[in-house]
């Protein structure tokens, strides 16, 4: 009898739980939770299937010596040999060093974009037209830009013709895509031309969000344009500066379209992605290419952390500077109120 009573009690409790759950599911909170789960399920599933699962497989492949067509049972496990090869092979390591060219170009790109954004954030004649012209290259497809500059740099064509108009002798000009002293700089210039407009527009949007009264307070304090830029503009847009630097450095490490289309990686212009593409699809060394991808991911991850630490150090006084100019703004308002009171007293 006692066992039957216990069984009845347990079934009654289960029924109460089910009815309680159904009531909660039909309630407003339950419906909200159900909708959230339903909307999250599809994106998370797609993210896992098409991002995290392939990434996990790529990491697994990096420990094997294999081709695309190698059966699973015939893949040769080599441990960390592929990772050692990334730093021991001359083509892989030289491709990593080649990223320094694009990093230098990224620094020039950011400085140029920030300089022009600072000017164009204020009233300038023809400023909107100039913004559009500078942003337009970013809208063009990267492959199309590659073909444009391949023709632009070809011997005796556009660039050489322009230099000849300026008085240069064609016989004394280098081969812009063959001479290893200048060919990488030529490709970096192409990358800067394409991407600096995007960064400029981001900077302009951030600068225009700065309170205009801060500039007036700074002028009352005797600050010139450089001090206004250093103490007002730069601390106020520190988030956008950090974002643009991270995007620029990440892009310089993963440059692919311009060197692949313009030179196909010939004459010492093969970037890390170009070499990885050749190893994966031409040489069919899938394990080595996967190890290269993992190494690049780790380099980008380390660079991002170092950049965040660097900008935290650079902008460590940004909050105090903001408070200083906020105090000056309040001081300016107080002075105006005192002047009004004095004018009323005289009247």
Describe this protein's structure:
- Helix content is 77%, strand content 1%.
- With 347 residues, it is mostly helical.
- The chain has a two-stranded antiparallel ribbon with strand order 1-2.
- It is flat and about 95 Å long.
- Mean pLDDT is 81; it is low at 320-324.
Question: Key features?
Answer:
two-stranded antiparallel ribbon; 347 residues; mainly alpha; flat; 77% helix
Number of helices: 15
Distance between the termini: 102 Å
Widest sheet, order of strands: 1-2
Largest sheet: 2 strands, antiparallel
Compressed to H and E, one letter per element, the order equals HHEEHHHHHHHHHHHHH
What percent strand?
Answer: under 5%
Number of strands: 2
CA gyration radius, whole angstroms:
30 Å
Low-confidence stretches: 320-324
Short description:
The chain is mainly alpha-helical. It is built from 15 helices and 2 strands.
How are the elements arranged and paired?
Elements: H1 2-26, H2 28-61, E1 64-65, E2 76-77, H3 81-88, H4 90-120, H5 127-139, H6 142-153, H7 158-165, H8 183-207, H9 212-220, H10 225-236, H11 238-253, H12 257-262, H13 272-282, H14 286-314, H15 318-346
Antiparallel strand pairs: 1-2
């Amino acid at each position: 009898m006692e066992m039957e009573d216990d069984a009845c009690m347990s079934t009654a409790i289960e029924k109460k739980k089910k009815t309680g759950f159904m009531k909660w599911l039909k309630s407003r909170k339950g419906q909200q939770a159900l909708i959230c789960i339903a909307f999250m399920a599809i994106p998370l599933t797609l993210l896992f299937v098409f991002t995290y699962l392939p990434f996990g497989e790529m990491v697994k492949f990096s420990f094997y010596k294999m081709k695309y067509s190698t059966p699973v049972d015939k893949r040769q496990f080599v441990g960390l040999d592929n990772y050692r090869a990334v730093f021991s092979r001359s083509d892989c390591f030289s491709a990593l060093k080649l990223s320094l060219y694009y990093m230098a170009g990224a620094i020039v790109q950011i400085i140029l974009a920030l300089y022009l954004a600072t000017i164009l954030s204020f009233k300038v004649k023809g400023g909107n037209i100039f913004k559009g012209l500078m942003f337009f290259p970013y809208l063009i497809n990267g492959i199309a830009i590659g073909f444009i500059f391949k023709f632009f740099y070809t011997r005796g064509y556009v660039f050489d013709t322009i230099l000849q108009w300026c008085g240069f002798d064609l016989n004394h000009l280098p081969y812009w895509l063959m001479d290893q002293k200048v060919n990488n700089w030529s490709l970096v210039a192409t990358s800067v031309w394409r991407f600096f407009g995007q960064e400029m527009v981001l900077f302009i949007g951030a600068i225009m969000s700065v309170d205009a009264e801060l500039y007036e307070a700074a002028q009352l304090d005797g600050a010139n344009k450089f001090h206004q830029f250093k103490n007002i503009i730069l601390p106020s847009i520190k988030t956008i500066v950090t974002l643009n630097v991270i995007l620029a450095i990440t892009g310089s490490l993963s440059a692919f379209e311009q060197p692949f289309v313009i030179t196909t990686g010939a004459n010492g212009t093969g970037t890390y992605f170009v070499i990885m593409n050749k190893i994966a699809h031409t040489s069919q060394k899938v394990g080595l290419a996967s190890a290269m991808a993992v190494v690049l991911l780790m380099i980008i991850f380390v660079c991002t952390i170092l950049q965040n630490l660097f900008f935290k150090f650079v902008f460590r006084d940004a909050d105090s500077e903001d408070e200083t100019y906020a105090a000056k703004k309040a001081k300016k308002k107080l002075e105006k109120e005192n002047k009004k009171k004095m004018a009323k007293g005289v009247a």
